[in-house]
Amino acid sequence: MTDFETFEKIPQQTITEEKMNFAQVIFQNIQESYQTGLNFDCKYSFSSAMQYNSRDWVGLYKVGWSSANEYIHYVWAKEPNEKLEADVTFPATCIPNDDTEIYQFCYITSTGGMRGASMPFQFRSFIPEELVQVEDDTGLLIVKKRTNVLEEQLSKVMKEKEVIYNQLEETRQQNFQNEKKIIELEGEITHIETELESQTKLLRGERDALEENLDKCRQSLKEKTVALDLALTVEEELKNQVAVLERELGMISKKEIEMLRQTDKVQGENKNLNEKIELLDSALAERSQKEECYMKRFTEMKTMLGNLEVKHSALQKTYDDTLIRLKGEIAISKHYKDDISTLSERLTNYEDKLSAGEESKSIMRKELSSIKEFNAKLNQKFEHSTSENANLKMRLSELETLLQDQSKETNRAVEEEREKYRSIKSLYDKLKTESKDMVADGSRMALQTAYDEVRSRFSKFQKENVDLKRLLTDIENLNKDYEQREEHLMKENEDLKRRLQMAGEEYRTKYVECMKLQKQCTKLERKADLTDSMIKGNVGSNDVTCEAYVCSSDSVCQTNEAEVHEIELHNKIKELLQQQEHTDRHLERVKVQAAESQSTIEKLNNELEEMKKIYLKKCAEVDELRNKVIDKQLEENIEMVEKKEKSFAVRIPVTEYRGVSGLPEPLEPVKLHTAKTAAVKGTFSPPESTWVYPCNSGPPYPVTGNIIPELNDHDDDRFQDAVGEPQLLCPVCNHTFLSTSDLITHVESHNLEKYCPVCSNLMDNVSQKEYENHVNECK
User: Fold this and answer.
1) CA–CA gap between residue 298 and residue 5 (Å, rounded)
2) In angstroms, rounded to a whole number, what is the distance separating the alpha carbons of residues 536 and 294?
3) Residue 93 lies in a domain
4) What InterPro entries does the annotation carry (predicted)?
5) What is the 3-class SS of 135-161, one letter each residue?
């Protein structure tokens, strides 16, 4: 049985009669406290059953008075107006200076009967801290009481709380939609992850195939070197033959005069042959100077052969052999011309692809540098959040120590109240046996009025406490959701860091492979140029030289295919980097939404903290008022025991005090187990399960000690990349382009020679070996 139930165990008939007799005058606009040193007004209204008398008066009494003559001061009542309302003014000289007592107004008739009692109030001396300066709408400073200002602020806060509730509902709906989007994105990410795995498998297979092709190219290169050595030996033999022919031509020139007579017969037969030789001279004159000199000497030799008449038969045989050999050389030169044209086309295609690969490498370097900058920004934000987390942890430890101190003080106060309760209960049991025949009078009704007011205030504070608890649970749940999302984003950040590191390592390996292939391509180009020069200088080479040239052209084709595979591999890596950049942009948007939600939560926490302070102050005032009522009741009971022997005509029954001594303690704020460091802005009230009851009728008091368990972290799924298209940036001037062809043309205009992928520096006028050493040192 609670104290309120005990106090209310009064006969209903007695209460009805008292209300009829003692509620004929109603006091209006009674404040909780009045300031000493100032006059104050007392307003009241009459009921229709009340008859005014000029000898009626309004008295100022202490709560718990027993006789009408125990007034502190009285003022003659005024005649009511048409609305049955009137007011009186109490002078400042009659106001007591004791601010620990509780007072009330009572309307006393001319016969000495009480017809109305006001709510309890106190007198407080002037305290500068209770007055505040408030600026009105016109800009003037007005001095008001702190309590009035706080009540106005409380009403504003309650209105703002409703607005915040509406905003909170909207935020929840947005969060629900965002969660749906996150689920869809996670599904897309899993799909993309499977595609990436399949692509990586394909890339690995292509890399193995490229390595096999590279081994084949190396073997074929060794074979081609052997063939080239054979070609060189053949070239030496041909040079020797040319020297022998030159000596023969010198001998023939001496006999030129003797052979002039026979030129007429030979010129007719040699016209067709001279035309063919001239065509061959015009075709091979652009390729080699030696060939041109040789053909000129050959024509001279043929003209001298036309003049030879003496050795016609021997020269005719030599002529036939030379004609057969020249026909074969003409056929071989035509074949060489076709091969040279195809080789030049392949070389041009290879140079175009090589330049495109270099441009794609420069673009990838720029994208990698932008990713590194974004990663650095993410690291800075992460360090800032960790520092804020450490500060919040320190504040949480301070709040826990403060909470423990407050719980200890609350326990001591509870023990003191229990002692008072036991003493009052013993006195109550003693007086109960002596007050069975007592009759209720006006003082008991006045005390009942004061008690009802205290009880109404307490119920109001309880309702506000329930609303605050509900608001606390909502905010804590919201904080928990945002903290889980923050942990998820941190894990995504770590995953992205690992991915960036892996991408950098993979890029370095691919770059080294590309450089190796480029070196091999340059070597093959040099060998191709050497072979071309050999072809130009040795038109009369045999079939072995032709076969060596064909083998070298095949090796160039194989190298071309390897370069194509390398370019495709770089394109796939570029697509992966584009997907990663899209994921980074999505992560940035989610972080912005989390920051906005966190700012909204901080505003709600600040407003809630102010409301808690106001609530705790009101609870302290109610507690003080309750203690004073209990003390007054104890004094009244002692006085009644002393006055019993003097035979008072009217005494106060003690049954009405059974419930006053046990008003419950104000709830102490304690943090819930769901609160985390990012949301702790003040102290919180514990749930109902954390309150214990020492006895059946005793008040609840909070459990002391640390009731906050350790927080458990939950692992989330790894965040995967999404698909996106990055901007095309020039690695030199950072200019943006819409198409890859425009970018390649723009980069070629810079005349870049070598670009380091690690330190992003341009290296002009350096050898290939110095460039490779620089890249290895930067790693």
Assistant:
1) 140
2) 13
3) yes
4) SKICH, UBA_autophagy_assoc_protein, Znf_C2H2_type
5) ECCCCCEEEEEHHHHHHHHHHHHHHHH
Does pLDDT of 124 surpass 60? yes
For 370, counting Cβ atoms within 10 Å of its Cβ (0-12 exposed, 13-18 middle, 19+ buried), the class is: middle
Supply φ then ψ for residue 647, to 5 degrees: 60, 65
Longest C-alpha distance within the chain, in Å? 186
The kind and range of the H/E element at 630 are: helix 543-644
Q: Strands 122-124, 33-35: parallel, antiparallel or unpaired by DSSP?
A: parallel
* pLDDT tens digits for range 686-698: 443 334 333 344 4
Q: By the 8 A CB rule, do 330 and 541 touch?
A: no
Between CA 52 and CA 321 the distance in angstroms is 162
Task: Answer positive or negative: Cα dihedral of 651, 655, 656, 662.
Answer: positive
Encoding tokens for residue 725? 């298209």
* Confidence band for 123, pLDDT divided at 50, 70 and 90: confident
Q: What is the pLDDT of residues 339-349, one digit of tens each?
A: 666 776 777 77
CA–CA separation, 722 vs 191, rounded Å? 10
pLDDT digits (tens, 9 = 90+) for 357-402: 777 677 777 777 777 777 677 777 767 766 766 776 676 667 667 6
Residue 503 CA to residue 150 CA, distance in Å, equals 61
Does residue 541 belong to any structural domain of this protein?
Answer: no
Beta bridge partners of 122: 33
Residues whose CB is less than 8 angstroms from the CB of residue 575 and which lie 6 or more positions away in sequence, other chains included: none
| Length of the chain, in residues | 779
Range of the domain at 54: 9-126
For residues 396 and 683, is the Cβ–Cβ distance under 8 A? no
Q: Is 90 inside a domain boundary?
A: yes
CATH number of domain containing 66: 2.60.40.2840
Which ranges of 255-311 does DSSP label H, i.e. alpha helix?
Answer: 263-284, 289-307
692's enclosing H/E stretch is strand 691-692
By the 8 A CB rule, do 652 and 636 touch?
yes
